[in-house]
Amino acid sequence: MTNPTPDGGDGRERVQPEVLEPVADAGGGPPAPAVEGEQVTRPTKMIRIASMVRTMLEEVRRAPLDDAGRRRLREIHELSVRELEEVLSPDLRQELSDVVLPFSDEAPSESELRLAQAQLVGWLEGLFHGIQATLFTQQAMAQQQLEQMPHRGAPPGIAGPEPGPSGYL
Q1: Is the pTM above the cut of 0.85?
Q2: What is the residue-wise DSSP string for 40-82?
Q3: Least crowded by CB within 10 Å, which of 16, 52, 62, 145?
């Protein structure tokens, strides 16, 4: 996950990893529509947790759990949510806490666990789709900026194309 940051004086944007923010449009106008403040500071950690949560959901669907297994899965689920909160911006953290509700029992039923896991997986997939959409928008805007550059002319100090051979010796 990358986002452009102000240039270093040479007119080119610098790329700063792991934070998603809006990008100014090609005409130098305001940033493209994006949700301000939504950031993931450690995307690789988020992806690892999401993969683990998805795998746990598949396991819960395949085999029945005893009381100890349900307690353990609850602990893992709660730990996963806490770990995710560490890598999310305050806006996303609030959204996650609004979506993921605490369990009411020490050993929730299998259906409660399945629903909680599916809910968390669904939220994470939505987050991934949002990140992909932001990256696509940024890439399209950067492409548009590149396409407009030849129309603006060469920057000062850069010569045009070399003249081709002439018919004279």
Answers
A1: no
A2: BS-HHHHHHHHHHHHHHHHHHHHS---HHHHHHHHHHHHHHHH
A3: 62
